[in-house]
């Protein structure tokens, strides 16, 4: 299991999508997800025609129960 964090620092159209999340992220901000790998691929991609920038991408492996991390 992994914690994935990234920042959308600019966006004027479209959005970004993480392979484990069904919704597109379309506003400036920091996003974090818990991701359980089901294969060897991970991606953040632009959805449709997107004009924006992402930064500070972090992928960290976590052990144990992510609900009890501090």
What this model shows, in words?
The chain has strands at 2-18, 29-35, 44-61. It has 70 residues and is mostly beta strands. Strands 2-1-3 form a three-stranded antiparallel β-sheet, with no helix packed on it. The chain starts with a strand and ends in a 9-residue tail after the last strand.
In short:
Helices cover 0% and strands 60% of the residues. It is mainly β and 70 residues long.
List keywords for this structure.
single chain, 70 residues, 3-stranded antiparallel beta sheet, 60% strand, elongated
Characterize the quaternary organization of these chains. single chain
Q: Mean pLDDT, as a whole number?
A: 86
Physical arrangement of strands within the biggest beta sheet: 2-1-3
Tally the beta strands: 3
- Inertia-based shape: elongated
Q: Report on the biggest sheet.
A: 3 strands, antiparallel
Distance between the termini: 16 Å
**Helical amount among residues, as a percent range?**
under 10%
> Radius of gyration over alpha carbons?
13 Å
Number of helices: 0
**Unreliable stretches covering 5 or more consecutive residues:** none
Beta content comes to over 45%
Order of helices and strands: EEE
How does the helix and strand content classify structurally? mainly beta
């Amino acid at each position: 299991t992994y914690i994935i964090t990234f920042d959308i620092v600019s966006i004027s159209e479209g959005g970004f999508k993480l392979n484990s999340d069904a919704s597109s992220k379309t506003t400036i901000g920091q996003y974090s997800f818990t991701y359980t790998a089901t294969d060897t691929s991970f991606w953040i991609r632009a959805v449709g025609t997107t004009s924006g920038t992402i930064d500070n991408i972090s992928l960290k492996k976590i052990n144990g129960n992510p609900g009890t991390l501090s």
